[in-house]
Design goal:
This protein has 10 helices and 13 strands. The chain is an alpha/beta fold and 330 residues long. Bound molecules: S-adenosylmethionine. The site of S-adenosylmethionine has 20 residues, from helix 4 and helix 5. GO terms for molecular function: iron-sulfur cluster binding; metal ion binding; methyltransferase activity; structural constituent of ribosome.
Length: 330
């Protein structure tokens, strides 16, 4: 019997494993330190932060498994809201080493034209190299493009913008979201799960709704977000298992880490958003589960599901932060 084909996540992990081969561990560690310092510094920058092979190898080893899992989570929630839809093509803007291209392959089977746009040539080169390991990404087109006022995107079913808005000026963020709205049937934007990341997600969400898009996820509605600005921020968590390479680059010995991210998935397609979404880690108490929900009103509400609720209680115990509530019936 043939062994099952490896999943995109497994293929990515083994492609990344070979990455720092030949790079002395000290040099790899220095490249990661430089990267962290740059990302903590003032962004946006005038020129790419990812300047050479050591930078992009460090980025891919240090960040790509986490951005891949965050985008995969966002795309999975989006796919649930547009059942049966499969993108015919995909453009990933500010795609770097291609995390979102891999995440789309992990969400929808089959092959489709994929274009990754970025201004950092070394990131595109490494992305192309990694993608050679994935049958559906071998033919991807990696194009050097600067995101700015002149950006225009070719029509595409799916446009992803993952961990990029953070690096742009307000004017460039607006230009990018508007270009995506003009080009795409579906736009998925992912940002770090911080208050600032949330603010950028809300800004993009507002622009997409104004352009006629409906919100497919995470919100159960396309009305204004019920969070009072400054009091809280909507974000989620994706578990990232760490390879030994990942541990070597990041230090520490934990087998996994949790990547916090925020996202919005919007579309011109008909959508079936979740009735409600779990917006915090559920609290499991003796005989009860507390779920913080964003509902269609739109409103935030804490639901207490107890043993007396029978099947619903069992479902609540299996429900994670970010899941739709109640779970769809199979
Ligand atoms: C944090 S990385 C994210 C990469 C990838 N999307 C991911 O999720 O792993 C940000 C990317 O945006 C690109 N970028 C930043 N500003 C840009 C600009 N003005 N034009 C084009 N690419 C830009 C960077 O080169 C980098 O690859």
């Amino acid at each position: 019997m043939n062994a099952p084909a490896p999943s995109p996540a497994e293929t990515l992990r083994s492609a990344l494993a070979g990455l720092l081969d030949g790079l002395p561990p000290r040099q790899a560690a220095q490249a990661v330190d430089r990267l962290i310092a740059n990302y903590r510094g003032a962004t946006p920058t005038e020129a790419p932060i990812l300047r050479d092979r050591a930078d992009v190898a460090a980025y891919a080893a240090y960040r790509m498994p986490a951005t891949f899992e965050a985008v995969r989570s966002a795309l999975a929630a989006f796919a649930d809201a547009v059942p049966g839809w499969v993108p015919r093509d995909h453009v990933d803007v500010g795609g770097g080493t291609g995390a979102a291209a891999w995440a789309a392959c992990a969400t929808w089977d089959g092959e489709r034209p994929v274009t990754v746009l970025d201004w950092a040539e070394p990131a595109l080169a490494l992305g192309r190299e990694l993608a050679a390991a994935h049958p559906a990404l071998k033919a991807a087109d990696w194009q050097r493009t600067r995101i700015g006022p002149a950006l225009s995107l070719a029509g595409a079913d799916l446009v992803t913008v993952s961990y990029v808005l953070n690096e742009l000026t307000a004017a460039d963020r607006a230009a990018l979201v508007d270009a995506a709205a003009q080009a795409a049937q579906a736009v998925v934007v992912v940002e770090p799960g911080t208050p600032d990341g949330y603010a950028r997600i809300i800004e993009a969400r507002d622009r997409l709704v104004s352009a006629g898009f409906r919100i497919a996820a995470p919100c159960p509605h396309s009305a204004a977000c019920p969070i009072v600005p400054g009091t809280d921020w909507c974000h989620f968590s994706a578990r990232v298992s760490r390879s030994s390479l990942h541990r070597q680059v990041k230090g520490g010995s934990l087998a996994y880490e949790d990547e916090k991210f925020g996202y919005v998935a919007a579309t011109r397609l008909p959508v079936v958003p979740a009735p409600a979404r779990v917006v915090r880690k559920p609290q499991i108490r003796k005989g009860q589960v507390l779920l913080d929900l964003c509902e269609t009103d739109p409103a935030l509400r804490r639901a207490t599901v107890t043993k007396r609720h029978g099947d619903l209680y069992r479902a609540a115990r299996d429900t994670d932060w970010g899941d739709a509530w109640p779970p769809a019936e199979d």
